[in-house]
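Before the break, one more example. Copy the sequence into your notebook; we will annotate it together after we see the structure.
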Amino acid sequence: MDIADLEWQSRTLGDGITPRLVTMLVDRGEMELVVRAASERGEWFCAEAAARGLSRTGETERALEVLEPFIEAGWRPARWERAGVLLEAGRVRQALDEVRPDEEGLASERVCHDFAELLGKAGRLDEAITVLTPHLDREWILSALVRLTEGRGRDERVLELIAPRAQRVRDARGEKPWCVNPSNAQDLQAQVLERAGRVDEAIRILGADIAAGHFAVQNTLVAYAELLLRHGRLEELRVLGTGEHADFTLEYYARALEDHGQADEAEAVLRRFIATAEYPDRFRWPLVELLGRQGRLEEAVEVGRPTFEYHDACLFEGVIHLLHEAGRPDQAVALLDERSAEFVEEHASWFGSNRMWLLGEAGRHEEALAYAETLPSDTYGLTLDKAWILEEMGRVDEALALLRADPEVRPCEVAELLIRHGRAAEAIASMPSLAEQHAAGRRRDAALQANRGSDDPPF
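Here is what the structure looks like once it is written out:
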């Protein structure tokens, strides 16, 4: 077991036995295979899942045994996982002592976040708040505080901590507001007021900030619109959605109208803005979605059509997926085939892959394979797309042979196919070791670097 291999796998997430593969194995009842892969192959994601699964079933000592080699190797995430297992077993003090931060750790946002999470699970919420407090000027830590304390009787304490930070954002408007942290403090203040049952106060405070322009980021506008939508405040939403911030909030007003049985009015207001706004295309997608919910798919397509070949604000992919979700893949293929030669050339890999996918979803498998033969052999993802079509046709061995013959296909892709067809043990046994895959990754990186050419400018 090599720390460098584990660090590489954790960075890439696409090599070795990946989290996705582990989930597939666990979902299919292959926990013992996961345990063996952790112990025999040194696969961290297997060890992590095995420890959690065994812990949940009360097999504490087996869970700890799985983690021990990783801890001995110096893999820090394994210590945190062991703490989780001990906590699950009711050994709270031992769990906390396992990862209790020293002075250096207390200076680390990540360490304090993880330790606070563990304290929260242990029911020691006040200690968790204390650990997080020095780092609350970071947006993600402040969000973690709000999430960790939800429904646990600490709303007043949390509001005390948020209030000066929210005021700082208000006061910073006009003084490089994009530099102020935490820029989400106003949103979170309203969220905590709302969950504490103080909805009117949340709306009043955040509404006043929006009206005065005392906020730093677009997300605050969205948070206010979502708050109004949740509580059916149509009039406030009308003012917000049709005013100076319509670009970001009109869709929430339209959705509120629809929720109140006024879909015709929602459609009318969206069409009015599309017809009159300086930048109308940002209002097309809410109307596409509205028409889609009403089953008016042809009209939805026509609303999006003017944007289909845009570089920006293009709704084509969204409309394609809307048609697919509505069970109309043939219509989606027809839209693809209407695209100009310039569009196809500019989006060659995306176009080819999506056309094959939609042909497959439409059951037009032979046509999809024939189309694949017309694509350049170096089209990104072509082998995976062809293998998926073969799999859909029940030609699993042919799909496997195709994947194995392509040196660019990662071993995890072959393993996924085998697992889907009940061949989990074969899938794991056929995979190269983590060290071998890391070495192959280094060779790929070196080849890419060499292919840059000596004429490329230095960074």
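Residues 165 and 449 are 46 Å apart (CA to CA). The two ends are 34 Å apart (CA to CA). Try to locate both features in your own notes.
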